[in-house]
């Protein structure tokens, strides 16, 4: 598809927040974009992120945790940083990439009972979902 855009979602460890946004953007954009997610470190896919997305009908269980260097060859149209740490240490991408930043709380740092932790994951998921919808409306609105 000639008009397909490349979107990179970047976080610290590519385990939670970037994975949530990756899942929603894939669902919302379909063929309009190739969505990638990566971290400035690699922490592995968080099982609670998989579970909380499944609750909302989005399957990210096949996602992998990738290092940003793996995508150095991809000409990104958008680089979305979803945590302040990734924004601060974000590698330099070609000037054609539009960089957008939004800091989401890290649900992996939640404490308490399993249910309290999952509530934190759900709260962040809802913030990420709203952001995904706003991003798609703003950047991919049909002409």
Describe the structure.
The protein has four helices and four strands. By secondary structure, it is an alpha/beta fold. α1 links the parallel β1 and β2 (33-39). It has a four-stranded parallel β-sheet. It is 38% helix and 15% strand.
Tell me the fraction of residues in β-strands, as a range.
15-25%
Number of helices: 4
Low-confidence stretches: none
- Mean pLDDT, as a whole number? 91
Overall helicity:
25-40%
**Beginning-to-end CA distance, first to last residue:** 17 Å
Rounded to the nearest angstrom, the radius of gyration is 14 Å
Strand order of the largest sheet: 2-1-3-4
Quick rundown:
With 143 residues, this protein is α/β, with parallel strands linked by helices. The chain contains four helices and four strands.
Keywords:
about 140 residues, alpha/beta, 4-stranded parallel β-sheet, about 15% strand, globular
SSE topology sketch:
Layout lengths: L4 E7 L5 H13 L3 E7 L7 H9 L22 E4 L2 H6 L8 E4 L12 H27 L3
Parallel strand pairs: 1-2, 1-3, 3-4
Helix pairs in contact: 1-4, 2-4
């Amino acid at each position: 598809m000639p008009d397909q855009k490349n979107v990179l979602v970047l976080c610290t460890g590519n385990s939670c927040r970037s994975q949530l946004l990756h899942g929603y953007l894939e669902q919302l954009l379909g063929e309009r974009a190739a969505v990638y997610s990566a971290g400035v470190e690699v922490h592995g896919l968080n099982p609670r992120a998989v579970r909380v997305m499944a609750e909302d009908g989005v399957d990210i269980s096949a996602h992998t945790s990738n290092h940003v260097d793996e995508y150095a060859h991809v000409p990104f149209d958008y680089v979305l940083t979803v945590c302040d740490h990734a924004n601060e240490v974000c590698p330099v991408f070609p000037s054609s990439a539009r960089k957008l930043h939004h800091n989401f709380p890290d649900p992996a740092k939640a404490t308490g009972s399993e249910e309290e932790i999952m509530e934190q994951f759900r709260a962040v998921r809802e913030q990420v979902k709203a952001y995904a919808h706003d991003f798609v409306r703003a950047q991919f609105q049909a002409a």
